[in-house]
Amino acid sequence: MSLNIRLRVFHGPSVHAPFAAVIAEFTNAFKVELPASVIESQWCRFSKRPLWNTPDPSVSLSFEGLARILAIRFQHPDDPESATVRVIPGIGSAASFIALGFTDPSASAMVLRAAIDLAEGFFLRANGKLNSLVQFEPRLQEVNAALRRLPLEPIIRTLIHAARRRAIPVYPVAESSRIWLFGQGATGFHFFEAAGERDSFTGMRLAQDKTLSNRLVRRLGFPGVAHGIAVSAERAVRIARQLGYPVVVKPIALGKGEGVSAYVLNDAEVAMAYSSAATLSPQGVIVERHVGGNDHRLAVFGGRLAWVAARYPACVTGDGHSTIAELINEENRRRREEPAAAEGGLLQIEADADMLLHLRKQGFTLDSRPPAGATTNLRSVANISKGGTLADVTHLVHPDNVYMAEAIARSFRMDAFGIDFMTPDISRSWRHVPCAVIEVNGTPGIFFDARAERILQAKFPAGSDGRIPSVLLIDAPDGVATRVCNLLSAKGRAVGQTGEDYTLLNGYIRCQEGEDLSTRVMALVSDPGCEALVIETSAQSLGNSGLPLDRFDLALGLQVLPPDLRSLVQSCCVTFADANLPEAAVASLVEAVLDRYANAGAGAWSASPGRVRIPVECSK
Questions:
Q1: What is the DSSP letter of 466?
Q2: Contact 264, 246 (CB under 8 A)
Q3: Among 470, 445, 459, 443, which residue's Cα sits nearest to residue 166?
Q4: Distance of CA 37 to CAs 59, 125, 154, 534, 567, Å?
Q5: The whole model's pTM is what?
Q6: Would you place residue 38 in the very low, low, confident or very high pLDDT band (cuts 50, 70, 90)?
Q7: Measured between alpha carbons, how far is residue 510 from residues 467, 497, 499, 505, 552 in Å?
Q8: CA distance linking residue 317 with residue 375, whole number of Å
Q9: Which one has a higher pLDDT value, 176 or 428?
């Protein structure tokens, strides 16, 4: 391609964008716009999804506008509203800029370059200068692979959104690990989906094996399920006959309803269900007695029951004339377009062999037309991943069932735990109705913002944003950083101190020669032994690379700063001074930072969307 693209990574706000971003600089060779209808027709080659939700053929897009939309679609395929993008079109021969916010800079850099390259291909193709877009397909496959590093799963995405509303910083712990650091240093916590660092390895191992977890539940004196392990279809049939029909057949270790066949009624169905589960579970297949009632997820966090959700299988309600296939399409459309359905975590319903089998048991096919008002269950399992629905029944749960859930979670040594409890009535004690704990889960799902906020509240109480005291020194004379570190250390803080060419934590050397400032800062932020940060840099470095963090409690600009840089630092600091203050004044400002943390539990930073707190400005 002909565009010369310069990519730069800014790990914090910069004079180019008020957020951490990968920024592409290029000269736009296309001064015309393309109609949306032309763009959409070319886009269909790469995706079954429309490029935008409501395309208007009368709308035309500039080159920068198209690159922006492509970058959002690549990086946020299911959540475009969460994208942070800034576009500065070039005027005349001036360069254009596109800033794309990131959680993983290398993945976002690949996304942004691919978006600009593909936009160029669209414009060249429309102008008759490119015969085919086939050359872009390998590039987009690379982008899809890179996106696995990003928080695309609904659970962690919901948690990250809740954290950002409270100004809690979030960082990847390690590339492609799917583990995220919420907060900084000593006040940070690791999350893998909704599971946290306080969940035990032994508990997770037990939860991953349905046979072992069932044994522990029953050993604790709570209702488990009667089951056997089969390594052949013949053995599965014998177990089913011993238990009595109906039965459930499922893999030993998988979740989200994968390979599960519920309400299996005869030998032939057992053999078929065994074959389906065995391909996913070569170590054996569970055949267990069917337990009647509704499936409930009891979620425990920090030792306490947080909520109870009744889960129902995907279903459709007849209107008297539509086929089941048409009713599914209409329900999927509703889930895509209605905010309440999207916020509830409802996934698309997809027809597969299990659905067809379940319909056949009821005497239906996808072409059947249910009577008006008649509800048809599409699946035998109630998993959300299979299109199921939820209802909050926390207010109905019996105290004995609350105690059971909390006792099971603590006995598995798990801080975050999901318990799947089958009962005909959650308002009645487990001791008084036929019921069973059918599974446990070490990564309980969350799809609602309110639930994500409750999880964060347990880790970061009111007044806490998970940050540690931070001081930024710009062009500071020798000795200033040491004095500030001594002031923080005197209050019992283990201080992380870094500049462009050195890094220390509590006096011990960290990082190798040649590491850049953002890498050095992350080495300290990632260590729970770090209780305060002091960062030295220069005005020139900030202009070239941006701030190493999104905000600071105190910034001292000890030389006169250029206006745009001064404005940037002011907007990202609670307190800012750009004068060479006497030693006593610096000590007073550091003391004020520590007082604020002592009183509020963490930094008192405003998290209002689209706004920054006006800093307190000091002068000599």
A1: S
A2: yes
A3: 459
A4: 8, 14, 31, 53, 42
A5: 0.78
A6: confident
A7: 21, 10, 11, 7, 22
A8: 4
A9: 428
